């Protein structure tokens, strides 16, 4: 589990360590410099290999990037050989606070390793000791006020690497001038330059992101890599800011395992902090967490104890959604999958997945709505072939309304697509709504909020939380980074390649989550925070299945479902 610490938590963790004389900034700067040296060496090796000079094995050894944006790495930075980096040019963008201090000290290490380093001071003030150290070793210093923005942009363009050390966790709001103007110009230049841009490293955070909420309130220079200190910050894992952080790498400077825990004054460690039991943290599940959550069958289990998933999906116009949702559920390991819908669709489901039972009966979790048209009360709309009626019936077993009709008590549900327009009663947290940004905006408009898709995309966490509070349900907001907000912790998962944004991928996710909820149905009803964890687990499995099915290329939704068994086996370590 990766957990992100708010700027306040970071500050509180730093205080006792600083009081105890722990050299936090020295550790941060050293770790940062090692990453920069490693990456500069790797890029040079790549360039030489392209020119035909270096053997492939050495190249592979020095690259080793996981390549997924927003993915953190644990491996300590590899020391780069002197010859790999000598003569490379670095530009430091230096702000007035400790973030600039980290950057100047790191710059001093780079000078000592033979790089030509220029620090551009964006403010009249700069970290005094850091600046003195940088000058002492021979770093070049210029000020933004003297150089002006166009000259700085040119200097950056001509460099091998640029370090964004304008502001860190001490920043509030959009970057102000003159740093804001500089970053806007650099961001424009980067967008126009394509590949011809220096490797861009953000120091602690990309300057200008919302540290605690992941917002992008103003200009930000997109980083290839963010080297963050002590702990992840929410803005590095939450959309949209996660999208400008590049690969996130943590440098351990000696923070305790959880916020508020006793400080460690001993040497650094390389591990992610454990989850804090306190509610409302921003977390990201990893494979080991999913393995713990997974309902693995034992010798005493049979199909009914393992969980029956009921799927109400598809119509004659959209039969594929039914095939995809049932396939997702079957291949995730449901004890049984029941399909409820028009006969013509049921026939197609059976052709694709003969394991599905096309008949009603008791279920432990519902999947409602994929491929079912939106309900428009003012209009007869497209013929839903009885699906709305079936969904209303199933929802009664979720909300407990009309509970005399519900045999066997309340059960969890995945509420997707068309079913999102059929919510009449307050929902329990074990109902998981799975909208994309457009669907969430529509749901929120129905609740009286004046939002559109772009507004949701600008503040996904805020709107997911708002929808949770308004409906009671757990909200799984789909996107490149998927956010899950329920009554406890928030989860943010970035496990899938962009190829996953293809029609039907969401239907498969609904099926995967349905099986997980059915497998732990009674617990999810009892523990109001479990559905969100299971939802995040489903997103991780779906994303990894998409990665496997894609293998770097296009992916079809059904292939995501087909990749699920191997991904689950891998996660469970079998
Ligand atoms: N406290 C410590 O000893 C450590 C701090 N560390 C670094 O220090 C950073 C935090 O340092 P600070 O608290 O000094 O703050 P920052 O360096 O993040 O930035 C605060 C400075 O930026 C200015 N500022 C704030 N908002 C701005 C905006 N919107 N536009 C333009 N300028 C703005 C403020 O006037 C202030 O001078 C961390 O991100 C990390 O990089 C690390 O070195 C670890 C140890
Ligand atoms: N850029 C992207 N990167 C990674 N995953 C994405 C991206 N865009 C969309 N996805 C994922 O693809 C799926 C699309 O689901 P959805 O929008 O419901 O499509 P459909 O309704 O056609 O199945 C979701 O799981 C979403 O998180
Ligand atoms: K920064």
Which tags fit this structure?
574 residues; alpha/beta; Rossmann fold; UDP-N-acetylmuramoyl-L-alanine:D-glutamate ligase; 2 domains; 8-stranded parallel beta sheet; 22 helices; binds ligand NAX; binds adenosine-5'-diphosphate; binds potassium ion
User: What is the number of independent domains?
Assistant: 2
Q: Helix content range of the residues, please?
A: 40-55%
CATH class of the largest domain: Alpha Beta
Count of distinct strands: 18
Q: Which class best fits the helix and strand makeup?
A: alpha/beta
CATH topology name of the largest domain? UDP-N-acetylmuramoyl-L-alanine:D-glutamate ligase
Within CATH, the superfamily of the largest domain carries the name: Ribokinase
- How many helical stretches? 22
Q: What is the topology, as strand order, of the major beta sheet?
A: 1-10-18-17-16-15-14-13-11-12
Mean pLDDT: 91
Give every kind of bound small molecule, once each: ligand NAX, adenosine-5'-diphosphate, potassium ion
Please state the second-level CATH architecture of the largest domain: 3-Layer(aba) Sandwich
Radius of gyration: 26 Å
Shape: elongated
**Quaternary class:** single chain
- Poorly predicted segments: 54-74, 266-279
> What is the terminal-to-terminal distance?
21 Å
Largest sheet: 10 strands, mixed
Binding site for AMP: 478-482, 506
Pfam families: Carb_kinase (PF01256), YjeF_N (PF03853)
Keywords: ATP-binding, Isomerase, Kinase, Lyase, Metal-binding, Multifunctional enzyme, NAD, NADP, Nucleotide-binding, Potassium, Transferase
Binding site for (6S)-NADPHX: 98-102, 168-174, 204, 321, 371, 436, 507
